[in-house]
Specification:
Helix content is 65%, strand content 0%. The longest helix has 37 residues. The chain starts with a helix and ends in a 7-residue tail after the last helix. It has nine helices and no strands.
């Protein structure tokens, strides 16, 4: 019998140090919270789509529902133009191509909401959500409570961080989705 085979350390795997276990637990906890945050943002988008489509009476009255002919962007962008928004020319262009603007906005709400809720396609969804949040920020500019910043910008950065940290893998179908789309990393 060799000396290596007789030693108990050769037969048992090395145990991680206490610091490594603590770091693993912290990372696991943080990633779980990241998954919960992704679900919350996804539900925000999905709820906005449902309320604006059907006029559930929360932010959108039934008579203003998209299915009843209401425009989901005309009031918001029109208010920005009337309020002296410095980007009024851009919003006028978006209003000039309405109802296409409404369709794109509503598809964005639905797509981001479903992708974040399921944890699939979070990179595309995050870029779309960041673009939507940034446009909403610019349409509301200047802010009444803070001249430069509001939560739309915070959320734009947060959703991009979710994409970078693979938030769909945590409390979602991200890992399974990655196997389906394989080498198409943009679709993860």
């Amino acid at each position: 019998m060799s000396a290596t085979a007789a030693t108990p350390t050769a037969a048992t795997p090395a145990r991680p140090a206490a610091a490594e276990l603590t770091a693993t637990r912290k990372a696991g906890w943080g990633y779980t919270l990241l998954g919960v945050t992704r679900l919350m943002v996804g539900f925000t988008f999905l709820w906005a789509f449902l309320d604006k489509t059907f006029g559930l009476g929360f932010a959108t009255p039934p008579e203003g529902a998209w299915l009843n002919g209401g425009s989901r962007t005309a009031g918001f962008l029109g208010g920005s133009i009337e309020g002296g928004n410095p980007f009024a020319g851009v919003w006028s262009v978006f209003l000039s191509i309405n109802p296409l603007t409404d369709v794109l906005f509503m598809l964005g709400l639905l797509g981001v909401g479903l992708a974040f809720m399921l944890g699939i396609g979070t990179r595309v969804a995050a870029i779309s959500a960041a673009a939507m949040y940034t446009l909403m920020y610019l349409a509301a500019f200047p802010m009444s409570t803070n001249p430069l910043y509001d939560t739309h910008l915070l959320l734009a950065v947060a959703v991009l961080a979710m994409a970078g940290l693979a938030a769909g893998d945590h409390i979602g179908l991200g890992r399974q989705w990655s196997r389906i789309v394989k080498g198409n990393r943009f679709l993860i």
